[in-house]
Amino acid sequence: QVQLVESGGGSVQAGGSLRLSCVVSTDPDTFNVMAWFRQAPGKEREGVAGRYSNSGHTYYTDSTEGRFTISQDNAKKTVYLQMNSLKPEDTAMYYCAADKTRGAFWHQAEMYTYWGQGTQVTVSS
Predict the structure, then answer these.
(1) Which of 29, 42, 64, 105 has the CB geometry, 3.0–4.6 Å to 68, for a possible disulfide?
(2) 3-state secondary structure of 48
(3) Kindly report the CA angle at 49 between 43 and 55, in degrees rounded to 5?
(4) How far apart are CA 79 and CA 98, in angstroms?
């Protein structure tokens, strides 16, 4: 059974940093893509960052590029999302996601088979 367990969320002031962790029950590189999504109340789930295992290429949405970094530590079976210079608009529930399917864009939430339970990030003004 594949399980993803997120942690590291919390409340911070604008300009602060958080590092989210996603512990994967198997080698993260067995998946085609690992990604982080977020969803704020009243909004659709949005891709924040993605990483393709075969290339190591990472992708970010325009609003987070330059501030967020996705990375992996395969020895720890953990995917990270380092979030710097946080803004109030980053407030959301953050989810780790994984899929083995090729041929789809990383930011398409509907393609992902496995999801974590989410961890809340709240950024205050």
Answers:
(1) 64
(2) strand
(3) 150
(4) 10
